[in-house]
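Much of our argument rests on the idea that a fold can be written as discrete symbols. Part of our work consisted of pairing the sequence of a single chain with a tokenised description of its backbone. No coordinates are needed to read the tokens, only the vocabulary itself. The record that follows shows the chain in one-letter code together with its fold in token form.
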Amino acid sequence: MAEMIFSSVVLLVSASPIIILGFVQYRSKEPVGFWAGKKPPRKEEITDVGAYNRKHGLMWILYGLGLIVCYVCGMSFGGLTAAYLCMAEVFGGLLAMAAYHNRLNRMYYRKREDI
């Protein structure tokens, strides 16, 4: 029982900032960034800032909720299964998010000659 409580608290402490980041990006008026240490694009570089931000925010929200869903589904089969599902979500989710971010950049970045 203590293992379940401890792992639930760790999961919530880990997933909450990810979900909050998603809501902040979803509601942002300025273009949002994805990579740490890299400046986000300027408004002039994005064709539709609102859609760009909403899609990035939704991506982070789904990533955080995915962690919670994997944990809840895995706990019905045991703690080790939950850990494996969460690890798969973390690594697979990060790869999927990086690919989706690159796709969004191709969709919403203006061409160099249009700026």
Remarks:
- The chain has a mean pLDDT of 91.
- The CA atoms of residues 36 and 60 lie 14 Å apart.
